[in-house]
């Protein structure tokens, strides 16, 4: 049984001109201990798909799915209280832009300990001990001192480590990492990816890696889903995807990498796709 299984997920948002379909019939699954990458350019519906799973989209969004199973239970059928108990404990998410995701009004120690209070029911002493352990686990030096720091007192890479500590605080079975290396320099990106993969292997978590970076896909994933304009264009194991991509959009993504440039200009999506494909329509 898959850890997470989604069938035919659609997400729509109301606009001034009607309903906009941000995710269009996407299906996916991830097993315990597996790394699934969801790749595509900005606006392809990667983050929206996972925010729908987490229940973090605006109430005005129209979300439908044939199934949205976590360990065999349909998340859609859970009461609000049961879903809150699940999200943050068994399913956790690392959000984009860690500095913006942390509350600037509270210390990082308070924010980590709040997760432990809500989901684990720990007392104050146990929460502090666990928070120090988590900060040490994600590689922050002087963790006891760091607990008293506010987000603005830390670098982007340090805030990302705090976000990871919060996400793994309750030993989740599924971790969703949404562009975890965005806005970080190359050295810190490598450290964060190595940290995530180490934690994933150690804890046996299922990991969904949302990214637009094919290099991250090659380095981390077991399987890959390619999305474009809300639709799943292709799904394959990582080796097959790079060696013999099936969709024109995947070929375009791979050919657009700077190292694959063959002339004076980079390849674009339109170089590979028909007019209907580029518009997100059935060819």
From TrEMBL:
CDD domains: ABC_NikE_OppD_transporters. One of its GO terms (molecular function) is ATP hydrolysis activity. InterPro entries: AAA+_ATPase, ABC_Ni/Peptide_Import, ABC_transporter-like_ATP-bd, ABC_transporter-like_CS, P-loop_NTPase. This is ABC transporter ATP-binding protein. Keywords: ATP-binding, Cell membrane, Membrane, Nucleotide-binding, Transport. Its main location: membrane. GO terms for biological process: transmembrane transport. It is found in: Cell inner membrane. It is a peripheral membrane protein. Belongs to the ABC transporter superfamily. Signal peptide: none annotated. It comes from the Bacteria. GO terms for cellular component: plasma membrane. The keyword Cell membrane applies. Residues 4-254 form the ABC transporter domain.
């Amino acid at each position: 049984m898959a850890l997470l299984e989604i069938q035919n997920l659609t997400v729509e948002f109301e606009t001034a001109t009607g309903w906009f379909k941000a995710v269009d019939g996407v299906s996916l699954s991830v097993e315990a201990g597996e790394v699934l990458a969801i790749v595509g350019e900005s606006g392809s519906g990667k983050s929206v798909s996972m925010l729908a799973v987490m229940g973090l989209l605006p109430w005005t969004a129209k979300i439908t799915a044939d199934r949205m199973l976590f360990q065999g239970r349909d998340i859609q059928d859970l009461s609000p209280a049961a879903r809150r108990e699940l999200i943050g404990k068994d399913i956790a998410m690392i959000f984009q832009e860690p500095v913006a995701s942390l509350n600037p009004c509270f210390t990082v120690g308070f924010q980590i300990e709040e997760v432990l209070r809500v989901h684990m029911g720990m007392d104050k002493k146990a929460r502090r001990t666990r928070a120090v352990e988590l900060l040490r686990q994600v590689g922050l030096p002087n963790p006891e001192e760091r607990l008293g720091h506010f987000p603005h007192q830390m670098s982007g890479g340090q805030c990302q480590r705090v976000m990871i500590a919060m996400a793994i605080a309750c030993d989740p079975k599924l971790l969703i990492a949404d562009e975890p290396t965005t806005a970080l320099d190359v050295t810190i990106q490598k450290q964060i990816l190595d940290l995530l993969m180490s934690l994933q292997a150690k804890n046996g978590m299922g990991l969904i890696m949302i990214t637009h970076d094919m290099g991250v896909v090659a380095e981390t994933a077991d399987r890959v889903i390619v999305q474009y304009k809300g639709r799943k264009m292709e799904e394959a194991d990582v080796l097959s995807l790079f060696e013999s991509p099936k969709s024109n959009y995947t070929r375009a993504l791979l050919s657009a990498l700077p190292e694959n440039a063959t002339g004076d200009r980079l390849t674009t999506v339109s170089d590979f796709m028909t007019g209907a494909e580029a518009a997100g329509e059935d060819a």
